[in-house]
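#struct-help
A.M.: can someone run this one for me? Single chain, 423 residues.
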Amino acid sequence: MRNDQKFTGNIDWLTVLIYIVLVLIGWATIYSAVYTEGLSPFNTAGSGTAVNTGKQFQWIVGCLVIGAIILIIDGKFFVTFSYPIFGFFIPLLIGVMFFGAMVKGQRNWIRIGGFQMQPSELAKFTTSLALAKYLSGLNVDIRKWRDKWKAFAIIALPMMIVLIQGDAGSAIVFVVFALVLFREGLESYFLIIGASVIFLSVIALVVPKLWYLWIIFAVIGGVLIYFNYKKRQLVYLITGIVLVSSIYVTGVNFIFDHLKSHQRDRINVLLGREVEKGKDWNIKQSIIAIGSGGLTGKGYLQGTQTKLKFVPEQSTDFIFSSIGEEWGFAGSVVIIGLFMGLLMRLLYLSERQRSKYSRIYGYCVVSILFFHFLINVGMAIGVAPVIGIPLPFISYGGSSLLAFTILLFVFLRLDSQRLEVLR
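D.P.: on it. Structure tokens below:
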């Protein structure tokens, strides 16, 4: 008997259980964040945030149905059609910029009746499929430059389209695919380059005068060249690094000066710079809300910061502040523990795969969920930039819940067929 005929016995139900718990916690928290007296959790009539809980419930039911359907589809389907699915979404991402619905100043949504969906959320899933398909190829070696560039292109293409759409937060998420490449053998010097880019970006924004940095680079380069002037290749390398660093920090300043005002304000708040009164309102109110929860919280539906709507976007980007205020430190630890448990479980499942495709796809899932979790919680406590990405399975939003559900359940289906040869 074929193994997939008894797929229910091979599904990792512990992961499914954690998923359901997180989704239900999210639904309850959304209800609390938009709560008004007499409001039904199934309400979809009216407009504004009052309908969020009801619409999210509909999305939850829909996602559970879709998740169940995925679990009965042969995993070989996703392996076989990885490239076509990816190829279908690329023109969709481009087309939505011209024919999509306008939401919050961005034309990157598809509206169907009373529902609207953001294709950029699903782009993370399709990129995961394509990257897993490519890297699992028989003759592909990520240590070869030819194969590196192809892998980089798979990641960069949807990332650039999403960035052009104006959704910088979603675009940044694609950077996390680098973790998958490192797992598959990408050289460590890329990690050094990445760390250097981050370091240079920070000092370019922190140092008040750009020419200060030019002088510092020139002095450091001059000293290094002085002590190594007999080694011609090393001198060339040092000179090149100094020039590239100087050009890069100049570019960072140029890009920063041409960002939208609210994007500059977010970066300035993170760096501790002075901003106009009210520009750091979101983060300050989020920190106040979390801090006011104390050890055990104020109680469900009892959050004053939440009820009085002091924290903007408290059912989406800053939903963790609602959790911290009402459930306190203890409740926050439980949520973090559930996420860490999910991530550790997915890592374990990824490593036990016999199929290279399944393992790589599993690491894509882990990387995406980890990045969203890390940045969203970091935003709420003021240690990460406010880039507007949701907390997986908890934040309000049908597009994100659908994307995370598909992302996770496809991996669970692949894992259920781990004893088969998936190519």
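A.M.: thanks! The longest strand covers residues 106-112.
D.P.: also worth noting: The beta strands are 101-103, 106-112, 115-117.
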